[in-house]
Design goal:
By secondary structure, the protein is α/β, with parallel strands linked by helices. It has a single domain, classed as YbaK/aminoacyl-tRNA synthetase-associated domain (YbaK protein). It has helices at 2-10, 26-32, 67-74, 84-91, 117-120, 140-150; strands spanning 16-19, 41-47, 54-60, 80-81, 111-116, 124-127, 134-139, 154-157. The strands form two sheets. A five-stranded mixed β-sheet has the order 4-2-3-5-8. Strands 1-7-6 form a three-stranded antiparallel β-sheet. β6 and β7 form a beta hairpin. The longest helix has 11 residues, at 140-150. The protein is globular and about 40 Å long. The mean pLDDT is 94.
Length: 159
């Protein structure tokens, strides 16, 4: 986490941060994470049917996601959840720690980013800083700067 925070600081990105017990579900986030400015999110790490493509999908915390409909939106053939091993290999993190900020660990751009328009329209949204024991409120313009610095293309979708 320290390297990520230093990277963000180097970009002039300063985020509100709260520390909390480990969280793995939206219910745990609601119980254990102190209030924070911005939109709470859930982050899905997916793979396509053949395993040749990986995606990070960022949506509002309580928005339902239909994987079949997501296939049409993203062009992924029969998307399913990526394994913990694939997550570690592609983004260098453990389950429960998935967020847009994990793209810092993807210099080969093996993971495609899809963000729901509702989340992207928010002034700020929540991200784990590579661990699930802290949450950052990342301002919209800072997220755009982060993606530019990592070289990841943003695909805005309606979920």
């Amino acid at each position: 986490m320290a390297d990520l925070l230093a990277f963000l600081d180097g970009l002039g990105i300063h985020c509100e941060r709260v520390d909390h017990p480990p969280v793995f579900t939206i219910d745990e986030v609601e119980r254990l994470v102190p209030p924070l400015a911005g939109a709470p999110t859930k982050n899905l790490f997916l793979r396509d049917k053949k395993g040749g493509r990986q995606a990070l999908v960022v949506v509002a915390a309580h928005k339902p996601v239909d994987l079949r409909a997501l296939a049409a939106t993203t062009g992924f053939e029969r998307p399913s959840f990526g394994s913990p091993d694939r997550l570690k290999r592609c983004l260098g993190i453990e389950p429960g720690c998935v967020s847009l900020l994990a793209l810092v660990n993807d210099p080969e751009h093996a993971v495609e980013l899809f963000v729901d328009r509702d989340v992207w329209a928010a002034e700020a949204f929540h991200c784990h800083p590579l661990v699930n024991t802290a949450t950052l409120s990342v301002p919209h313009e800072s997220a755009a700067r982060f993606l530019s610095a990592t070289g990841h293309a943003l695909h805005l979708v309606t979920i």
